[in-house]
Amino acid sequence: MPLKTLKSLGQNFLVDKNIIKKIISAADMHSNETVFEIGPGRGAITFELAKRAKKVIAIEKDRGLAEELQKTIKSQGLSNIEIIHGDALKINVETLRRNISNYKVISNPPYDIASRLLIDFLISDNPAYKIVFVVQKEIAQKAIAKPGHNTLFTVLIQTFGKPKIITNIPRSCFSPQPRVDSAILSIDPIKDIEISDKNKFIQLVKAGFSSKRKFLINNLSNKLKIERSKLQAAFKETGLNEKIRAEKLEVNEWKDLTLSLKGLY
Ligand code: SAH
Questions:
Q1: Global pTM?
Q2: How many C-beta atoms surround the C-beta of residue 61 within 10 A?
């Protein structure tokens, strides 16, 4: 009997072989690499990854699907796939990946947790070596947005990685079909980021985007409680106009601003 599809778990299974091929090709797996997959579902990507990787560690929240996968793995005598039944947002992935250098993350995860997972894998102290995700087209476009259209997500993604859209995916490539189109988003994390304090950087960017309609300087003053005159001096030092809004800043300007405001929040 086919398993019931759970809408609440964002289950849209990939059925288009050509798209699966493109994901695998973007993953560029080597036989000595470990790969994490969030939400393997029925294994559309999992088994292709396993043919190429040293090990696949896949986290699946749906018990029924996790059990199905285990059965298939056993019956096929595959030894390099580990299925973990659990919620990828709750499992301490940091612990799982601690001893693994050079891991990749290749996934078609549920849409509602994709951005969170992307950021998490990017800004970790042990970041992924490469990330390939199927995401909503809108999220992929946000990832590659240009100053003038930047969001908090854009700045974080582009500070910590180099995003690229591999291809768009029409909804007909999934079963059941989602209500939105998708895209394959590939991100190569940047190895040596020149940010001395990641948390301070993130805190600043979050504060900067806290109210969309306000000028950046007002958001920073409200959220970080920095004196106006000090903010003005930092803006001057960074070459920023006081009337600029967060969406207009380039990634490097966020970095410069963090430096100029060091010790003030
Ligand atoms: N990768 C498969 C399935 C995509 S559907 C394919 O491409 O065909 C998304 C999958 O993520 C489903 O199997 C769903 O059960 C699983 N899932 C949903 N929320 C999850 C979570 N929090 N942690 C791990 N898996 C989750």
A1: 0.95
A2: 23
- 203-255 pLDDT, tens digit per residue, is 999 999 999 889 999 999 999 999 999 999 999 999 999 999 999 999 999 99
Q: What number does the ligand 1 atom closest to the CA of 90 have?
A: 22
For residue 134, the ligand 1 atom closest to its alpha carbon is 7
Ligand 1 pocket: which of 61, 82, 121 to mutate (most atoms within 8 A of CB): 61
CA nearest neighbour of 134 among 23, 4, 10: 23
The set of residues, in sequence order, having a beta carbon less than 8 Å from that of 95 and lying 6+ positions away, is none
The token pair at 129 is 């070596």
C-alpha of residue 63 to centroid of ligand 1, in Å:
11
- Which ligand 1 atom is the nearest neighbour of the CA of 110? 9
Our CA angle for 187, 114, 153, nearest 5°, is: 65
C-alpha 223/C-alpha 265 separation (Å) is 10
Q: Give the residue among 22, 3, 7, 10 at the shortest CA–CA distance from 69.
A: 3
Residue 236 DSSP symbol: H
- The whole-angstrom separation of Cα 35 and Cα 107 is 10
Q: Give me the helix-helix angle, 228-238 and 251-260, nearest 10°.
A: 130
d(CA 254, CA 257): 5
Lookup: tokens for 215: 């000028």
